[in-house]
Amino acid sequence: MPSVLSMAMVAIDLTYISAQNTHYPKQLVTVANGATFIALVLPVEIKAKVSNIIYMHVHRESRKCYVGITVQAAGKRWLNGTAYRYNRRFGSALKRHGWEMFDSFVLAFGDDRNALNQAEVAAISAAGGHKSKFTYNLSPGGELVAENDKPIIGVFLATGEERLFKSGTDAARKLEMTSMDMPMAVARGTRASAAGWWFRFKYDELATPPKSWGEELRIDAMRSKWGKRVIAINYATGERRLFSTTAEAAAALGVEQSAVSMVAQGKDSSAKGWWFRFEDDDRPMPLVHGSQAIRLKLDKHVYAVHLITGERRDFRNCSVADSELGLYNGATASVASGDRTSAANWWFSYDKDIAPPLAFKSALVAIARSKAVVAIEIATGREQQFDSAKDAASALGMSRAAISCVISGKLKTAKGYRFRFAKPEEVICNSRNS
Question: Would residue 119 count as lying in a domain?
Fold first, then answer.
């Protein structure tokens, strides 16, 4: 069987766009069309904070993926999937499957927006192309976002002010919106407004602004939602009842209104033995409910690789893996969900196609804790940047402890130098110049 390293030789590697990518271990990620990408191995808490990256969200079962770039912190861009709710294709997939069914990978850091744009175009193409059955992307990437060539007119609803924008992206940037998709989502009619603005395509002169928006629209939507007629079916007897609202169903059956709503929206399978759906919803009644449904949801197959010996095993679920490998309760799940890199030298994944990391335990901790430092020569003011305090100590002929004391404020200088940790933008800049 080929090693992870030999497999990586034929994988799609975008880490060349920045020297910053050399600081992290790598793993392999296979997507729906069979392509394999190299991704960076980042602890969860670090992954949420990184910026200027190209990333990929992959559905665990189908391996269908969404490729994107962001210059802001990844956690703020993704928002556990809510940031994509206005994306027609990916947003629909998230609503159908749930954010927890997708794994997020950082493919590379980029030194500038142009490098990220080029990498995004290459990644989407390699993953099967936009609007294909293999990806959720609606555009080829880069500056060519979906429908980006269409000019739109924006109306500020509070004042009636009108502005012409060359594209939805242009509007989002000039109006400083957090999501590039919002203006086009309004123009397409999938939402009423964005940041107080309404949009229409320039040549769609029949479109008119909404009569309500913002909080007023939310209240109207809630009234409509809670006012829908609800059908209730008893699992044990098959009894079927029709109610005017979720509140009426809750009062008649002795169930919390929120529980009725959760089942009717498809977020739960039952409430006190009853299943609910809105009258205009044609969803079939689930075959299982209650504790049986919970067990079925938790009974997720998990794959294991011993990071030292290479031994591979698979288990019916995380609890079985914990028991058979003698691990503490929850160890397997914490690794499989990405909260930990390994447990007792075992690595776990819900997807057998994802390769284990090349570094783990102390090696990964050392990488995560290594911070770039800047040395300032007092005599000249000249600054030098090093990947870590250890590298600085070796190059300048001093102890690492002395550098740490200067950075922490215990010493003012050491051998004619002042020291500080490098700022994130300096690390990116240094990578660009190297």
Answer: yes
